[in-house]
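cron nightly-structures :: item 1 of 1
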Amino acid sequence: MITRKERVWVFWYGVVVMAITSIPYLAALAVEGDTWKFTGFLIGVEDGNSYLAKMLSGAFGSWLFKTPYTTFPQKGTLAFLPYIILGKFASGDGMHAQLMVLFHSFRFIAGILCILATYDFISNFVSNLWARRIGTLLATIGGGFGFLYVAGLGGLWQQRLPLEFFSPETFGFLSLFGLPHLALGRACLLWGLSSVMNGSHPIRKLPLTSLYFLVLVLVQPVTAALADGLVMLVVIGQIIIQYSEVHHLREAFTSVWQEMKIRLVWAAAPALALLLGILISFQGDPFLQRWEAQNIITSPPLVDYLLAYGWTMPFVILAIVFMVRKEIHWQPFLIGWVFVLPILVYLPVNLQRRLAEGGWIALVILVVTVCERIIHGKKVLAWSAALFSLSTIMILAGGLMTALNPSKPVFIPAREAEAFNFLADEAIPGDVVLASYQVSNALPAWVPVRVVSGHGPESIDGNSINSLVKNFFNGKFTAEQQNEFLLDYQVKYVYVGSSEKALGRWNPESIRSLMLVYSDGEIDIYKVVAQ
């Protein structure tokens, strides 16, 4: 049971954590001025711009996801719904500023929900108040040996970044810092699993059980697929526990099924139906198939996971020993999750790394369980939390330094923002703008237009199109080829700034169909008036 006092503590802990994560963003807003404008993101700026673009599409009436980062035909699909819905709350002038505020409000709330769910989930297995609290701290801001990378031992990772610094699913702090849909997804995953596990008469929890997993499908479908597997692992764990008591497999299975069947139907059926519907829609949509093929998030070598999670392994081994000796309660679900984790992250799927989601929490619970049992366990756990939170402190410090020293891509030049604002007034929503990749990534976050390429996974055939864009601006295309390119990609505006000029010496006078509609001495915008 979780007392009211505990819930008050974890709520305010969540508020404090999320307030601290907001400091670098507030600093970035404070330093922007006549020279630089803040994009709203300190990490993952390319993806961050795409989130604002999705919100902007919602502000202009969309309910289904259609990426603005390609001219490839799209039907629209049920994806990124939280961002599209958030966009419905923005209108009028200062759209980009409104979207930033909405995004970070979502980040703040989703982060608190994730921390609350983490505490609740840990409390399913941990009874001591101090262990729950320190465990939650470790689960939300803890990491691995990544701090050694900053200390000059990057050779351990063969110059790859440690997982703490780029993989939100491996630990979790990065989700709190900049990826609210992942934080909300983890909250739904943990609360959903808790609802499946808790109580022999869970009727009052059934609607919430369905809601958790339904929201999870809409927020992060790959985690919803993982959740289905984890629910089955919960069932297997319960059967093992029951078998240890009755020593008869069929009786154990029957007992668990009778107890959990209603919960399982409520948890799995609605979410599974929605997930299958989304998967079927992918099979009949050429755009979704191409997008899925390009959306690749592979896992790094195993040594990187050992450097991330390796320090918890002695605790995992001790936990198994204590369970075998019956000195602590047997937890086959947690042990099973830890053992399948290396398999999950190397499954032959495009989104390997995403399947680590939540595994860190299982490891932390085993660490905490051992610390409850050993002498001076409280001190061991406290020192572990302090040491392995150093990477998080470094992330925050790095974010603050980035915020205080404006540069691309975290900031964009104020001239660029003014040119974007002109396009917002001039262009019709859905018009195609031709620009360099860098400008094309930021532009749809400010203006409801499309670009030919500007986001890795969402720009269909992005690599080949990026080469064509370079040839367009560097003079390798003849005037006829330039006209054909504009026609093929339905281009309505050509944006020419410093990034485009850096590609080569393009001569706009070679194309008679272009009319200069904006110029500030550094940035020119041309409108395609005839073809």
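cron nightly-structures :: done
The chain has a mean pLDDT of 93.
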